[in-house]
Design a protein that fits this description.
Structural class: alpha/beta
Number of strands: 24
Helix content: 25-40%
Strand order of the largest sheet: 16-17-18-15-14-20-21
Length: about 500
């Protein structure tokens, strides 16, 4: 059901889930409201799924997986379906971007850019679909022929967050479908609308019913059943590390593989020889773009002592110019926090930082500017005098809050940068190629940016070290996260020797 087809209930749009190719309400008809973070008002009703809905969706996905309409089509045909889906998303990019902005409060400029880029993942993995190859092994057993097959896992549960709903779902759906799996996708309860708006495109692209199913609801209601369901073969999750830990533990009970992309406390490291103006812009981009609501947020600026004062002066000056307001306007640079609970959490961390003795040199409170209306805004905030062991420097805030920490040499910078439980990303700002290469080797993070920040591509692997996750998304090998390898042995002699002795 597209936005043009959605029912109006009390002035609000009303959506249905996608299960087995049908648009369905939740069992019993339960719904919940989704709110616009800029206006603070509800604007749509979304089905609130229960355990019965999970079972129905998983059964539909399992049936589709075994159906020849999906299981027996050629790999090239699967790739063509993904390419067609990419074309349809490109066609609907502007509309889907507007829905995302309305539902999660992120800037229309960013959401528009993401939606225009998302098709590339479907093109890329569509192109890989018929490049999945086994191998013939020159086995050491005389008279034996041995080869391998790469096969899909089955039903994949994709659980996605609220900050970049369609982008982060695409990172899972594209390789999983290219590998021949079927999907049960649960978007965040805070940003389900764009997933449900995307639903009709799967049918239009030609995917058989049940290959992609979309469940909406609360993790407390359906998360455990979805992760632990015996017919779910794999779980792909993006979200907070505490929830990720619970997902990991649940999946382990039934010995199923997981891909986890979790939290971060990424360091933007600025050396004394850096081009300061570029480093300032990169640091601002790393923490205030997307209102800091990104797992790769550069929430720690590690600045060489020799340039600290100049760097902070320029950082604060640029931060003060950030234009806050309606995320649907192209001129807005900082939008609202997506959820009420997250806004409260960010403000709590600001209070914690002040109590720990950090010096607030910019922001430090809820935004009350007229252009912010009734939205859930927090002023872009910068703390200096931060020590590496403070909570504000160790724990993920997920908001527009930056900690500035000084260092004296590369060894100290590495120790501070690596001194958290996370390892998702890091930035390095230097004109010295030796420093750049050495730091890229020593930093414990899945992505290292040098003289840039927040660059991602469908071609490059993305994932974390330590508590930031397991597995990789995007890039050539991401498709293997959704495959399993089978070894096939064929006796070519036709004569069984001693049956009591292993061959």
């Amino acid at each position: 059901m597209t936005s043009r087809e959605a029912r109006k209930d009390g002035g609000m749009q009303s959506y249905k889930m996608l299960i087995g190719g049908e648009r369905l309400d939740a069992e019993g008809g339960a719904t919940f409201e989704t709110e616009n973070p800029f206006s603070g008002a509800p604007w749509a009703l979304v089905p609130r799924a229960g355990v019965a809905d999970v079972d129905k969706a998983v059964a539909a996905a399992r049936t589709a997986f075994n159906n020849p309409d999906w299981r027996k089509i050629s790999a090239s045909a699967r790739g063509a379906l993904l390419h067609r889906l990419g074309d349809l998303i490109a066609r609907e990019a502007e509309r889907l971007a507007q829905i995302e902005t309305r539902d999660n409060g992120k800037l229309i400029t960013e959401m528009r850019g993401q939606l225009k880029y998302i098709p590339q993942w479907y093109y890329y993995f569509g192109g890989l679909a018929d490049k999945i190859e086994g191998r013939v092994i020159p086995i050491d057993k005389p008279g034996m022929f041995n080869f391998t097959r790469e096969e899909p896992l089955g039903v994949v549960a994709a659980i996605t967050p609220w900050n970049s709903p369609l982008m982060l779902a695409t990172w899972k759906l594209a390789p999983a479908l290219a590998a021949g799996n079927t999907i049960v996708w649960k978007p965040s309860e805070f940003s389900s609308a764009s997933a449900l708006e995307l639903a009709p495109l799967f049918e239009e692209a030609g995917f058989p019913p049940g290959v992609v199913n979309i469940l909406t609801g609360f993790g407390a209601d359906i998360g455990e059943r979805l992760v632990s369901h015996p017919d779910v073969a794999k779980v792909a999750f993006t979200g907070g590390d505490r929830t990720g830990q619970s997902v990991y533990e649940l999946a382990a009970r039934s010995i199923k593989p997981v891909t986890l992309e979790l939290g971060g406390k990424s360091a933007n490291i600025v050396f004394g020889d850096a081009l300061i103006d570029n480093a300032v812009k990169g640091t601002i981009s790393g923490i205030f773009a997307a209102t800091g609501q990104t797992c790769i947020a550069g929430s720690r600026a590690l600045v060489h002592r020799s340039i600290h004062d100049e760097f902070v002066d320029k950082l604060v000056s640029l931060g003060k110019t950030a234009r806050m307001g309606d995320p649907a306007l192209d001129t807005t640079q900082v939008g609202p926090i997506t959820t009420r609970p997250q806004r409260a959490k960010v403000l709590d961390y600001i209070g914690i930082a002040k109590n720990e003795g950090a010096q607030c040199v910019l922001g430090g409170a809820a935004a009350t500017r007229p252009e912010c209306g009734n939205g859930w805004f927090v002023e872009p905030t910068i703390f200096t005098g931060v020590k590496a062991d403070m909570r504000i420097a160790q724990e993920e805030v997920f908001g527009p809050v930056l900690s500035v920490i000084t260092f004296d040499d590369a060894d100290e910078a590495v120790a501070i940068a690596n001194g958290t439980q996370y390892g998702l990303a890091a930035g390095v700002w230097t004109q010295n190629i030796g420093t750049a290469l050495t730091m890229s080797e020593r930093l414990e993070a899945g992505t290292i940016w040098v003289n840039t920040y927040r660059a991602v591509s469908y071609m490059s692997p993305f994932g974390g070290y330590k508590r930031s996750g397991i597995g990789r998304e995007s890039g050539l090998n991401a498709i293997r996260e959704y495959l399993q390898e089978k070894s096939v042995w064929i006796d070519m002699i036709g004569e069984v020797a001693n049956p009591f002795v292993q061959r």
